[in-house]
Amino acid sequence: SLGNGGLGRLAACFLDSLATLGYAAYGCGIRYRYGMFKQQIRDGFQVEVPDHWLENGNPFELRRPEYTKEVKFGGYIRVSMDENGRSVFNHEGYQSVKAVPFDLPIVGYGNGIVNTLRIWDAEAVNCFQLDSFDKGDYQKAVEQENLARNIVEVLYPNDNHYAGKELRLKQQYFFISASVQEAVAKYMRKHNDVRKLYEKVTFQLNDTHPTVAVAELMRILMDEYGLEWDEAWDVTTKTCAYTNHTIMAEALEKWPIELFSRLLPRVYQIVEEINRRFIIEIEKRYPYETGLTQEKIKKMAIVYDGQVKMAHLAIVAGFSVNGVARLHTEILKNQELRDFYEMFPEKFNNKTNGITQRRFLLHGNPLLADWVTDHIGDEWITDLAQISKLKIYADDEKCRQEFMNIKYQNKVRLAKYILENNGVEVDPRSIFDVQVKRLHEYKRQLLNILHVMYLYNEIKEHPEMEFYPRTFIFGAKAAAGYKNAKLTIKLINAVADVVNNDDSINGKLKVVFIENYRVSNAEWIFAAADVSEQISTASKEASGTGNMKFMVNGALTLGTMDGANVEIVEEVGRENAFIFGLTSDEIIKIEEEHTYNPQKYIERNPGLAKVLNQLVDGTYDPTHQLFRELYESLVYGIEGNRADVYYVLADFDAYCEARKLSGETFQDRKGWARKAILNIACSGKFSSDRTIEDYVKDIWKVKTVKVK
Ligand code: H2P
Questions:
Q1: 543 Cβ closer than 6 Å to some ligand 1 atom
Q2: Which helix (H) or strand (E) holds 123?
Q3: Would you say the CB of residue 6 lies under 6 angstroms from ligand 1?
Q4: Ligand 1: does its nearest atom lie under 6 Å from the Cβ of 5?
Q5: pLDDT averaged over the chain?
Q6: How confident is the model at residue 142 (pLDDT cuts 50, 70, 90)?
């Protein structure tokens, strides 16, 4: 409930790995009253329903009032001078809230180690008191109560779309200020020199959301511990490290100065000073003779054009900047963050994502987990590299049979779930072709469903055509305000309605949209998948982690050369996956040259033209209007965007081919089983245990803890 999509789930996998490997680490966040919404499908449309997850109490949490912190918002800064002639920054006229932590235990696998996920709740500072009423502070008392209530009310469900909402910045500063205050306080309970904080503490900033930590740490070190700027900067730049999780510009947070400085006046002063000093660095590095000074300032400044750019703040103050898959890190270095890479090449490094095999194989797929253990022992549970020992069984006929039996039973389990939840009967002997992930145009669920429409036409026109029965399974939440994403859900359900109820195709095609996709049903879905759809526009998916969850469950990847797909294919071999479409270099080139013309793809493929037309000809919607925006965004471009922003049409033919090949390949049961077993056997790299060890070795440099 506390996250949304791969970003949040990655953090959960990391916590599992940290505890299991024995590293002392905290996860920090907010104790939202309402987490991610529950999705209902009504008449094919997504409806968001609040999830009051704490309603009946939560036995897995412990309130820790002894660590309560005060967090201040608004007001102004009055500068005075102390007896040594040093400036003192007095924060006055502010509103504040109490941050009270709740600790959730994160239990390591079989090692007696329990780490902590610390989520902060907000309480009013002066609980409604009569004396404040008497003092005429009635209004202030109510305001502080409301502030506390609002801050922790709800997780913004806009996935990675930065919405510029004031409350969102309040949430970020709230949990960051409390977490950083407590980290410093905890350090000072055991050590005496705050100048050496970095020897014991790293803040790993998970995307831009927590990057205000940089300025908050500076504030605490200077205003509360009396450090000079240079001393504080030295500590901060050795303590903070930043992970970038996406290149989608929409997700890189930029706050209007007006909002930022009004809400966080002291923090803003510090950000301005960091920026002023950074610009001096730029001018030194690119003196006026180079003619580059202004351009570099424009592209790299932290405060520019009325905005505070949080990614820039994190890069300038962090000692490490990492991407989450090799290709993604290369794109950061050579495209998106090129100027920063030129200036600070030593900061950049890659940490390819991973997943915890303990949830996504051991817990989610017990039949397969037992089978693996029967063949190679159980060391894979805490050392996934061991799973490569399965390779020899890929050529063993009995093992292939056993694997296919297990997959079949998992498909029966999912088919039952689908029947109970969707009322649709699916055949577990058909190919289970699955795409589950947040709904976003760059992830291209639309490409998938357009191709289903295309196949349906083909089967109707050529009933004699050889076609292996296939079940297309979707699961996705769309951000509540994301029109095209929500329309795509409706389209999938509209196609499902038509296709699933057409007796003339003899059940060769089935389309299922699984309501309320989340970790608990994901476990069943991964276990039952034959084909893993990873079809993002190359260069746009930073890593993907669903791709790894499918792989470890023995599904074959059907995907583009994007994110971690590149490394999956490198491990398992291209012949054991179905790779198609434009490459990241090709996409980047087309984008730079502005040469894309989708019309040519429509003209050369009448089947594609027909499918597009069916979006608006009544086939899937009697009004003809419902899917017009999808149609127009592909063919003409809407809302100031060019046509087909994510190259759905350019990749369509190649996608057809890849899907076709996968269907043919499936008919050779032995060959398929071999490929599936090899996928499992080659998944060792994609454990989050390996990812965490990489972070430890290159960034955190912490030692393991042993518990007797
Ligand atoms: C994001 C990226 C993924 C990446 C994940 C974790 C933001 O997640 O888009 O490519 O694997 O972070 O690093 P998502 O789209 O699933 O919400």
A1: yes
A2: strand 114-124
A3: yes
A4: yes
A5: 96
A6: confident
In short, whether 245's Cβ falls inside 6 Å of ligand 1 is yes
The lowest-confidence range among 124-128, 481-485, 687-691 is: 124-128
Residue nearest to atom 3 of ligand 1 (CA): 544
Q: Which stretches of 127-255 are DSSP H helices?
A: 130-134, 138-151, 166-190, 213-219, 229-239
Report pLDDT for 707. 79
Structure tokens at 506: 């003899």
Tokens encoding 554: 């023995």
List b or e across 75-85, with b for residues whose CB sees 16 or more CB atoms inside 10 angstroms.
Answer: beeeeeeeeee
The token pair that represents 631 in the structure block: 């149609």
Ligand 1 atom closest to Cα of residue 5 = 17
| Mean per-residue pLDDT, 493-519 | 97
**Residue closest to 696 by CA, chosen among 688, 708, 686:** 688
Helix, strand or coil, per DSSP, at residue 472: strand
Q: For residue range 541-583, what is the model confidence (pLDDT) as tens digits?
A: 999 999 999 999 999 999 999 999 999 999 999 999 999 999 9
Reading phi first (left if > 0) and then psi (alpha if -120 to 50, else beta), residue 559 is in beta
Cβ-in-10-Å burial (0-12, 13-18, 19+) of 136 comes to exposed
Helices (H), 540-622: 546-552, 565-572, 584-593, 599-604, 606-614
> What are the structure tokens assigned to 314, written together?
């994190």
209 in contact with ligand 1, CB cutoff 6 A = no
Q: Residues near 370 by Cβ (< 8 Å), separated by ≥ 6?
A: none
Rounded to the nearest whole angstrom, what is the distance from the C-alpha of residue 350 to the centroid of ligand 1? 15
The answer for residues whose C-beta is within 8 angstroms of residue 223's C-beta and 6 or more apart is: 89, 266
Instruction: Look at residue 252 in the predicted model and tell me its pLDDT.
Output: 87
What are the start-end ranges of the E strands in 221-323? Answer: 240-243, 254-256, 303-304, 307-309, 321-323
Which residues are catalytic, by number?
245, 437-438, 443, 545, 549
- DSSP H or E run through 482: none
User: Does this model's pTM top 0.90?
Assistant: yes
Q: Do the strands 26-30 and 114-124 form a parallel or antiparallel pair, or are they unpaired?
A: parallel
Q: Which residues contact 276 (CB under 8 A, 6 or more apart)?
A: none
- Dihedral sign computed on CA atoms, order 693, 696, 701, 704: negative
Residue nearest (by alpha carbon) to ligand 1 atom 6: 7
Residue 138: per-residue pLDDT? 80
DSSP E strands, 437-579: 470-475, 509-513, 531-534, 556-559, 578-579
Asked if residue 161 has pLDDT above 90, the reply is no
| Of 525, 523, 508, residue with least CA distance to 422 | 525
Question: Is 688 in contact with 17 (CB distance < 8 Å)?
Answer: yes
DSSP state of 167: H
* Structure tokens that stand for 55 in this block: 């309603």
530, amino acid identity: D
Tell me the three state secondary structure of residue 422: helix
Question: Atom 13, ligand 1: which residue's CA is nearest?
Answer: 245
Q: Are 542 and 245 in contact (CB under 8 A)?
A: yes
Ligand 1 atom, smallest distance to 9 CA: 6
